Amino acid sequence: MVAKSNIGLLALVSVLFIVGCQSMRPTQPSKPFTPQVVTSGTPTVTPTPTQQTTTVTPPVSTPTVVTPQIITPQFATGAVKGLPKFGIIFSAGGAKAWAHVGVLKEMQKFKFPVISVAGIEWGSVVAASFAQNASVNEVEWELAKFKNIDDWQEFVQAAFARKNTQDFKMPFVCPSVNLKTKTSYMLNRGQVDQFIPYCIPSAGLTKPFGNSVANLTDLNLTIQHLKATGVNKIILINVIAGKRESAIIKSVDSPENQIWAQFAASMAKKSPGIDEVIEIDLGDYDIDDFDKRRDIMVKGSELGYSQVKRIADKYRL
Questions:
Q1: pTM of the entire structure?
Q2: How many beta carbons lie within 10 A of that of residue 253, not counting itself?
Q3: To bridge 233 with a disulfide, which of 84, 116, 120, 121 should be the other Cys (CB 3.0-4.6 Å)?
């Protein structure tokens, strides 16, 4: 009995010893938690559900330098020794922007060495169409497809579907303002049908697109952008020139007319960096006369001829 008791006691002591040794082992510290920081890529602008696109690469605020590559039989290349490298700014004007096509026809006769273009409001449509292949005939063809201002988005989508600025013959840019952020943007790269709608809307003609409208008042960014592409002479084609006493749109004291009057005044004052101005006085037409765009185009050619020739003679084109 004594032997069995001793054996039981020894077993109990052994168990307690083993348990005690295990409890004395140092514990391994747990790894500290490191939060996973997820960095987002390039932010995107999400259009409203009524728009046809899904996402749009945000416009860049600084000029992107693009090597001009204009080689066409209609317009000379700026690489010719002794010739200037022209950049053209096509002004806003609603339906009056069709006069730009007439002016381009006159410039084509003298083979102006154009290497970069910019367009404001509906002038951006002319500029983008011209930048594709430096052909005035193509510009006229594309603008002939326009039907109604109420369907302007459908027109833009059809005109620039699957067209990217990297395939253009020359750099193109259009200025836009975001109404929410109150920020100006220079849109100059990517799928044209996705970003150019941000440059077109203007007071009294079309509603904002993606909270954005055309930048009508500030030419400085546009001038800087053109110079960054290698331009050394800038021509402004102003199709809203003239001292018309009546309203440009609606009544004289309407908010829409106040905006357009300020734009007209800013265009009338030659901005630093603008070398030449072609003024097209379309006093007989309103900016919403889209049904008269063919007549406006012809008038642009008539009024632009002598001014284009003057510039051509000046630079010996």
A1: 0.77
A2: 8
A3: 84
